[in-house]
Design goal:
14 strands; Aspartate Aminotransferase, domain 1; 15 helices; alpha/beta
Length: 455
Amino acid sequence: MSTSDLTQALTGSARDFRAPQGTDLMARVGPFYEWTEVRRQRSLWPYSKSTQKAPLSTCTAHDDSGMQFTGLNFGTQDYLGLSSDPEIKEVAKAVIDEYGIHSAGSSALAGNTKYSLRLEETISGFLNVDHTVLYPTGWAAGYGVIKGLVRPSDHVVMDGLAHACLQEGAYSATPNVYLHGHLNVDSVRRHLRRIRDKDTTNGILVVTESLFSMDSDTPDLKALQNLCDEYEATLLVDVAHDLGAMGPGGRGFIGEQDMLGKIDIVMGSFSKTFASNGGFVSCNSVAVKQYLKYFGSTAMFSNALSPAQAATVTKVFEIVQSEKGQQLRSLLMTRIGQLRDALNAEGLKYTGNPSPIVPVLVGDEALARLVSRQLPALEVIANLVEYPAVAKGDARLRLQMMPTHSLENVQALASKLRTAIDLAQVEYARYRAAVGGVTGVTAVTDAARPTVTAA
């Protein structure tokens, strides 16, 4: 492959292909495929991997060109390691024997089961709210709650790093979407003041996450709820990444910040900690619950959670609240601390607060792709995140932790990442020299970036 092909594989982003032009809807997406194919040919396309066995702490996978490799698995969202837990599997098997596989209907019609109704009650009790409505996926919950409640004349004030399902729900619901500075309460206040100075009749939905998945940080939820109360706005908090896995009793940052039952609307996903697809929206209003069931199209026009999914999630909630759950969370936080220490020892930089998400900073997208290319040979499964999912020049490996990782696993991972970056820097310097660019090291290491202080 020529230097120009390598340049094509190391430059550009998915955003370049977001708005294709032309009359032929099928033909005009061809350039995106061609770009990904050039990256595949250089082993620089790390997405769409498939696991060949259960996603445990060590796992066998295929990349999407079919190459098989086995490695330490830090790319799975299973924060308490319960997706393969024997108790969970036994519940799923028993419910399949009793009920079959499929819910066979929308929750607005006849798709509810005794297990889904029990799950709604379980979540409401866990969050100290009165009502919960279930969705087939976490994405459906995030998109559906915004699309269901917000009308074109309303306003959405949203953290600039909010998940894509929240942003797409907002932009599909109203043109009045305002992205505020990340975690910046003063920025939220300014937006709310400006909106209310001009509009005292329409609704405002303020949207944030309790744990942001790219940066592992969290907002001041009490301050945001107080602002919403002051400006007659409604607060929506997405708890997908911390609920169950963190906080007192597994209640995440809402519990840690003493906001249980005090947030207007809470939504979340089962796919990070609760060993299933699915999502939910919880609040203290029965009217909101009923309205979302029929005007939240992602619930009404989708089949409901299967009985096995609903039953297994309920079982996970039981485990989360048990001594076993506390032990898993404690071990998880121990492993997280050990990984952060091991990364420090290798001179590698991470960002955010201690959580199941450990973002290891790399920097330049080209270098990050070269780092990611080294991982299969080093027997590591980890996810590359690059622009536009994060800011340009801020690419990283998003490591995801489980309590089933051992101390030896995390120490080996840190060493292997150090090796991957060192090897990639040599390739990167050679590439930059070939195209007439600079050859300085750009990886985010001790030599290139000040130490990140854990908040």
